[in-house]
Please model this.
Amino acid sequence: ADLVRRGAIHQMELKAKQGGAPVYAYWFGWRTPVLDGRPLAYHCQDLAFWFDNIDRCLQATGGGDDARTLASQMSRSLVAFARTGDPNHDGIPKWTPFTDANRAMMIWDSTSEVKIDPDREARQALAAS
Model:
């Protein structure tokens, strides 16, 4: 997982340095209530949210208001991005593009927010290894 994360961050950095279209980075942090939350946020879990298929994936999402609210926010961002190249809409906090200077990421969770360089310590530890 560390190599995947490191590769994803490197890709964001390279894309941002090109100076073309903005880079909208995100971190899916929502934790499923299924199995008492033990699965945490796992690989590809975000797909049900991007496509607002929470109820089709109850075994993974558990349904519920938190999941449905997050799915609405994320799917609306996907549609806005497809239409305009900008994922912002009135149902989320302002999603600032990722740059080398700010390293901004939308943290998708029960309360979504944009954080500046949210994995700084982990990233620096990986770089040192």
Remarks:
- The mean pLDDT is 89.
- The beta strands are 25-28, 104-108, 113-116.
- The helical segments are 2-17, 47-50, 58-61, 65-84, 120-128.
- The CA atoms of residues 55 and 63 lie 6 Å apart.
